Amino acid sequence: MGAAAARSALASAGRAANEAVSFVVFLLLDALEVLLCVVYKVADYVVEGAWRPCYCSSSAATGKIVVSERGGSKVVSMLSATRLHLEDISDTLYTRPSVLASAAAASSASSQSQRRAPAPGVTVHSAIVQMLRGKVGAGAGDGKHRPYPSPRWSDCHCANCNPADTDRLLFVHVEAPPQGTPTEEDVLFIHGFISSSGFWTETVLPHVSPAARSRRRLFAVDLLGFGRSPKPADSLYTLREHVEMIERSVIERHGVRSFHLVAHSLGSILALALAVRHPAAVRSLTLVAPPYFPVPRGEVGTRYVLRAVAPRRVWPPIAFGASVACWYEHLSRTVSIVLCKHHRLWELAFRVFTLYRVRTYLMDGFFCHTHIASWHTLHNIICGSAGKIDRCLEVVRDQLTCDVTVYHGSDDELLPVQCSYAVKAKIPRAQVKVVDGKDHVTIVVGRQKDLARELEEIWDRKRLTRGWVFVEEDGCQQAPTKS
Question: With helix as H, strand as E and coil as C, how does the chain read?
């Protein structure tokens, strides 16, 4: 009894220390972010010849902007050439209060009403407006709205990061039976945030059996803005853009009619959106570590997910990294310059350090993206999915008949296991499989042989019962163990 009390007291002291240190660290990062904002505005002006607005300010757009209702959704028409669905844009792009502001709001009674209801009206941030004006070429010669160059000065300029694809289609890795061999169906693999198709092609795909390959084509994509796919500087990397690019690059280009979906992390959101758009074609849906956070009543969904994914804590380290990436536009751009712009140097150093013994496919995916791509994808897909993913799950539950399987690592510190249990609560027929001792990455990497075998069983419409023992608790399938 005394030992348990001592452990509880120690844990409480640790949490208190973590909160205190985190407050100081993120207070300093807030100050650094202000300084970097000025630095990058000057640097962009000197190198690109134009002032580039950022999301630090709260400035709303002015100019020729028309908001109309189309099919129940708000659409912004600009210069009669570009249309943007407002619901595709997450307000976390430009609504990220500092540590001090958050603390003041938490202690204010009026802040509760502000959190319960977003401000009425329509706001289009000036950074979004300028990106779209550059996209349609308006004002390109007046010195005010010059298009964003691609790649930008702060991005890598190598051919691997900037493919010469005039059609602007995604890079797609395809493994198919010999030419002339008929296929029954296809499998589409979708990677997660700051990753690439290599996450699947270097792990699971080599272990898919010849029998499974003889009946299916295997597709693994590099998402828009990542890997060897195009990285347009004028894109807002919304859910709509990502899904439509997958449709154009895989489903339409390769004539895909019936397919299974396998997705990791952020890719799970895209997989759900694809399933909703192609309900009759989806044979099975496998989600690995899905980022699903049910939003409590009275909370602003996008901001709730932002706090859940990035709690502004220095420990664990993965939470600190996520917090820097989510909360600090200019600091995350600095990280991209250091790591992504010079990725070839880091990859060479890693190979030399390991005496060329370790494959670098995870590093390749982690480094091959731009700040604009990662920043907008992070906010518009993960944070912006609040509410949308609920509707997708309801459609999968009510209108699709495919099997739904969810994998999660018990040691995942980035996305807790409760995310997968929440999917199960939405889709009762879903099977949740929690693997002991695995985290956000090792749920796939390191157990690829087992996962490939299990995926084949899913594709063959067999129930995954052999070797698994499930314990039912509170209506959810809990952590399994090998029998």
Answer: CHHHHHHHHHHHHHHHHHHHHHHHHHHHHHHHHHHHHHHHHHHHHHHHCCCCCCCCCCCECCCCEEEEEECCEEEEEECCCEEEEHHHCCHHHCCCCCHHHHHHHHCCCHHHHHHHCCCCCCCCEHHHHHHHHHHHCCCCCCCCCCCCCCCCCCCCCCCCCCCCCCCCCCCEEEECCCCCCCCCEEEEEECCCCCCCHHHHCCCHHHCCHHHHCCEEEEEECCCCECCCCCCCCCCCCHHHHHHHHHHHHHHCCCCCCEEEEEECHHHHHHHHHHHHCCCCEEEEEEECCCCCCCCCCCCHHHHHHHHHCCCCCCCHHHHHHHHHHHCHHHHHHHHHHHCCCHHHHHHHHHHHCCCCCCCHHHHHHHCECHHHHHHHHHHHHHCCCCHHHHHHHHHHHHCCCEEEEEEECCCCCCCCHHHHHHHHHCCCCEEEEECCCCCCCCCCCCHHHHHHHHHHHHCCCCCCCCEECCEECCEECCCEEC
What pLDDT digit, counting tens, does each position of 257-303 carry?
999 999 999 999 999 999 999 999 999 999 999 999 999 998 999 99
Domain residue ranges of the chain, discontinuous segments joined by +: 12-59, 172-338+370-467
Q: Which of 161-170, 366-375, 383-392 has the lowest mean pLDDT?
A: 161-170
Specify the higher pLDDT residue, 335 or 355: 335
> What was the pLDDT predicted at 47?
94
By mean pLDDT, which of 57-71, 124-138, 457-471 is the weakest? Answer: 57-71
CATH fit for domain 172-338+370-467, picks 3.40.190.10, 3.40.50.300, 3.40.50.1820, 1.10.3080.10? 3.40.50.1820
Does the pLDDT value for residue 242 go beyond 70? yes
Quote the pTM value: 0.87
Average pLDDT over residues 127-149: 58
Among all residues, which ones are annotated catalytic? 191, 265, 412, 440
